[in-house]
Automatic annotation (TrEMBL):
InterPro entries reported in the protein's UniProt record: HTH_HxlR (IPR002577), WH-like_DNA-bd_sf (IPR036388), WH_DNA-bd_sf (IPR036390)
Keyword annotations: DNA-binding, Transcription, Transcription regulation
High-level lineage: Bacteria, Bacillati, Actinomycetota, Actinomycetes, Micrococcales
Signal peptide: none
Name of this protein: HxlR family transcriptional regulator
Record-annotated HTH hxlR-type domain positions: 12-110
Entries under Pfam families matching the protein: HxlR
Family annotation (PROSITE patterns): HTH_HXLR
Length: 166
């Protein structure tokens, strides 16, 4: 449910972008899907989001071209999950820059640890979202690992169109 006017027909590209991305759940869902967590139950658990809210967001994100439905086997059943499209994968620099900005400009909870963005190609941490600050190469999902000490995980990102195994 939109809480504001429809900006989809606006001349300003920032307004049009915010028409699709302006809801905070959207970027969090893209983050999780790029980490290979595209199954409804995984998204609900990871995000702590109500079923109805998640269903609405997923439907809207498929309609907007950010996600695509992907079949996967669950025991003897075929179920549908969600994978990032190229449009969602192109949000990677924005997500990574948000992480960098959050590290620099927001208070970190005690003992949470620093989130590191590792460019797998060169093996170094980057302090930029779009281009590796160590080697200068453009960053793409399938060459990135996010290290989150508070969760005790190193997450390799998945390319567009792939539903992870986790």
């Amino acid at each position: 449910m939109p809480l504001r006017s429809d900006w989809s027909g606006e001349v300003c590209p920032i307004r049009r972008s915010l028409d699709v991305l302006g809801d905070g759940w959207v970027l969090l869902i893209v983050r999780d899907v790029l980490q290979g967590h595209g199954r409804f139950d995984e998204l609900r658990q990871n995000l702590g989001i109500a079923d109805a809210v998640l269903s609405r967001r997923l439907r809207t994100m498929v309609e907007a071209g950010l996600l695509t439905r992907v079949d996967y086997a669950d025991g003897g059943r075929t179920r549908q999950g969600y994978a990032a499209t190229e449009a969602a994968a192109e949000l990677l620099p924005i997500l990574q820059q948000l992480a960098v900005w959050g590290e620099r400009h927001t208070a970190m909870p005690d003992e949470s640890g620093h989130m590191a963005l590792i460019h797998d190609t060169c093996g170094h941490e980057t302090t930029q979202g779009q281009v590796c600050s160590a080697c200068g190469e453009v960053l793409v999902a399938e060459q990135m690992t996010w290290v989150k000490p508070w969760a005790g995980v190193r997450t390799s990102l998945v390319p567009a169109g792939v539903l992870g195994d986790a």
